[in-house]
Amino acid sequence: MAEIKTKKNDASVEVFLQTFSEEKRKDCEVVLKMMKQASKEEPKMWGSSIVGFGSYHYKSERSRQEGDWFITGFSPRKANLTLYILPSINSYPELLKKLGKCKTSVSCLYINKLADVDTKVLKELIDTAYKKMKEKVKITSK
Q1: With 26 labelled, which of 34, 61, 106, 110 sits at a CA distance of 20 to 30 A?
Q2: How many structural domains does the chain have?
Q3: Residue 3 counted as domain residue
Q4: pTM to 2 decimals?
Q5: Using N-to-C axis directions, what is the helix angle for 119-140 and 22-39, rounded to 10°?
Q6: Which residues pair with 108 in a beta bridge?
Q7: Long-range CB contacts (< 8 A, 24+ apart) of 99-106?
Q8: Would you say 112 and 83 are in contact if contact means Cβ atoms under 8 Å apart?
């Protein structure tokens, strides 16, 4: 079985974010602050391109794969800013309706730039999803 490549590491989040354009970096700093407030955790790099908060151990129900993963996180990509909203972005339809211009898939929220969305709604989405996932992790880890 292949080993998971996206693991928590000691790379610097600040150094990573400095590699982006000023506009993308400013958007990342806003999301970083929101996720830090929601999680009360320090950001960590996961792999070479994901900033994650918190962690939990999972075992896949469909395969024998298991490992550690972040509870929430984001990754500045060339095309957009990807936010990882667990367990599923579709768990929050009312917030998504109010959010603004974005795309979604499974646990990912794709935003071209923060100016396209309502940041108050985004903060509520991050807060709500983090709490829900944290509770789910507590329940499954007992």
Answers
A1: 106
A2: 1
A3: no
A4: 0.91
A5: 50
A6: 84, 105
A7: 99/125
A8: no
For tokens 């939990």, the residue is 56
Tell whether 2 is covered by a domain: no
Which of 80, 75, 79, 22 shows the shortest CA–CA distance to 49? 75
| Band (74; pLDDT cuts 50, 70, 90) | very high
Torsions phi, psi for 138 (to 5 deg)? -60, -45
What is the chain's Cα-based Rg? 15
Structure tokens at 92: 């929050």
With beta carbons less than 8 A apart as the criterion, state whether 45 and 13 touch: yes
Supply the range of the domain harboring residue 58: 8-140
Residue 97 lies in a domain: yes
Distance CA 23, CA 27 (A): 6
Q: Token pair for residue 96?
A: 């998504």
- Residue 25: which CATH number? 3.90.1150.200
Within a domain: 41: yes
pLDDT per position as a tens digit, 116-142: 999 999 999 999 999 999 988 875 543
